[in-house]
Amino acid sequence: MSQAIWLAALLAGGCPQQEAVLEQMAKAIEKDYVVAQEARQIAESVRDWADRGRYADACGDWLAFSTRLNRDLDAYDGHFHVERVVGEKAGADDDWLMAWRAAGVPTNMGVREVKVLEGNIGYLRLASFYPWDMARPKLLSAMELLKDTQGLVLDLRQNGGGDAETAGHLVRAFVDDTVSSLQDVQSRSGRKPEALPRRGLPEYHGGVVVLLDRRSASASEYVGYSLQAANRAVVIGSRSAGAATLMGDPKPLPHAFQIFIPDAQPINGRTGGNWNREGVTPDVNGGDDPIHVARRVLGGDLAVGESTR
What we know:
This protein is of the alpha/beta class. Helices cover about 35% and strands about 20% of the residues.
């Protein structure tokens, strides 16, 4: 039998196990995704993928199936995540999360570079936000070094996000203790304020620039957007990824699969919106050398709205 004939026969027969996973997934998304109207549209797409046998050529290859499915779901929301788990791991912390935590030790908990530049300008580059219990000592050391600088460049380029509590502690370092909350969290069940954590890092009083790019996502966007909206930082660089929704607990699916569905979203207290899909809009284009532009802004040589040329 030729490969074309074999593939046609396979597609005609479908893949019942895949179809069961996709149908249950569609129901879960329809029920729990944060925006009801969009939830119905995404669920319809998932059912269409099942009807057309989109993944039938990967029938029995669960890794290929989940990889392609995650890629397709990312087009709707980057915080969807589907995986296959077994036994006691089902519904618990998943492999990718545990691997991410383990990667924090050799990567210095995401603290990649800390220094004081000429002119007493601090520079802090964070590659990720690891859990607060792991990241706190590293961030505390970094901020102790930088707390007396006249300005700070917070470099979150290529930072894909991570732990929301750690990002919250970083934001708290730049805002006064009288500020209890910068955003609400909205879900299908309602909306409530999200409190900033109690101060865990030294308070920073100097000017702040946040560097973002198209690979800055999720928690790094939260930091940039929140400080920008609070008039506490100037954002320099390019538009960020646009991943604002919040990942919920895993929902079980047939055949040992589970899905994390974004079931809430932040609503900034000043803007009344967030950065989802649109990304954080920079105040100043970073040009060819965003760090140089940041130093000019902090030094008063370049105002927001001026050309970086």
